[in-house]
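Troubleshooting: if your tokenizer reports a length mismatch, compare your output against this known-good record of 105 residues.
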Amino acid sequence: MLSSQLLAGARNLGQIARRNFGIAAPALQKVSDPIQQMFLDKIREYKSKSAGGKMVDATPEIQRELAQELDKLAKQYGGGEGVDMTKFPEFKFQEPKIDPINSEN
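Known-good structure output:
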């Protein structure tokens, strides 16, 4: 019984290996389709333009609108000049005043 399970497992392993090779083989080959090559070129171009975390091909008008929206959000949520909005807020809780209980009643 154990040998039949091992044989079935070996057959399944062979099928899985062929399937995985069939999926990975095209990715390992050089791109021959011109559309795929153009797509890869555009992705590489976008990556080089977006270095530094800035917006790609942004006009001054778009930059101005972005700054306005960020200022509006900062004012709405308590930010402003010199306030680090990425820092976790610090909470300060005061101890409540508790009246003493007289046990002499």
